[in-house]
Amino acid sequence: MKKVLVLFALSILFFVIDNFFMPFVGIGGVYPSLLLVFCILYSIQNGKWEGMWLGVFCGLLQDLFFTNVFGINVITNMIVCLMAGVIGTNIFKDKKILPVASCFALSFLKGAIIFAVLYIIDIKMSFSRVLFVSIYDMVVAFFMYRRVYDLCQKDYMQIQWKF
Amino acid sequence: MKFKIFKNKLTVAIILLSVTFLILISRSVGRGSATAIENGVGSGFSVVQGALYNVTSSIKNSLGFVFNFSEVKSENEALRARNAELEKQLVDYNAIKSENTRLSSMVNFKDSHLDYNYVGCNIVGVTGSGYLDQFVIDRGSSDGIAKNMVAITGEGLIGQITFVSDNYSIVQTLSNENLAVSAMVESTSENSGILKGYKESGSSQIAKLYYLPIDSAIKAGDVILTSGLGGLYPKGIRIGTVLSVEEDKGKVMKTALVQPFVDFDKIQELFIVVPKNKIDVTY
User: Which of A160, B146, B212, B273 is the most exposed place for a label (fewest CB within 10 A)?
Assistant: First the structure.
């Protein structure tokens, strides 16, 4: 229960920061998404099932303020967190390089899917933005990874095996 | 046995969720208004974020002031001179306006500027995940706002409303290629132009004016205003200045790149133009 509350509170906190603070640290209109980076890093740590539900919840939050279409963030977050979970089971989690690189790749994938869906419904978006946002997300992941790793090692965050 | 697949709860969850969300997406394409849950949750967020956004924005402006003091000083002197010049023009304006009202009432024309309410609102956040340039404002359909209304500040046009909820709405800025505003060139009074957003490989906020007549006398430095066609917003709202002009011989039109007057990084409050008489307006 405490774990759910902590994740819930963190998600809301990151969402609010994403909307009011991140644009000010943006460079040329490009700013990262703390919430997405958190979801990806958490999914790498804790696997597909938990990561998927966290991604869905965060996607719902992001979709609140995303115009034109509802549900696009939910689906892309779900896909991205599933892939992150799969990656997570295959790597050494205490080295930074692979999680940070996969954060770049997955953020790029999310941007590409959003671009494709918006293109289909005739809304134009600039694709170079996707690349720059992914790079910025990678930088954020580099600094965030150690904190997420430590958070997931805490006792109440571990999955308890009941025998 | 093919039912073995359903024993894996992850697969089941994935399939169910994907189907649900795909249905959601396809049902909600192009919608302009929100569901009840979104109204509640979104309003809550917009209240909290509004306060935080104001604080950060003020801090950013003060820091900008400290670091750019000499620029601010020369800008101040230039503004004083312009202000004095404008005050002189204001005296002329008032005289012409009262004469106009008198003459219009004689000929029975309607004064189009009186048909609009200007609803002031604050920006509570920036959204779009860095992909789309959008603001969230703290007014919604309960204040009379509807999709496709325009947002302005004292300096000029900012953008259009693309999504409305009870207590908050989303404004897309002028550089988004999905907006279309009918515009005219001030010096030549040609009003067939449509202004749309334009994204170059840089990220500056630029718009492009299409459908100008091929023999138009438009040139760099001309001022672009709204033309008021369609009744959605009044004529004469400033949009920007022309940067460059191109001819498109294939479509027999001229296009112009326009630099908006508004600095999109420095807006905190804006006005939404709400027509008083909604029956006459075509959205």
Answer: A160
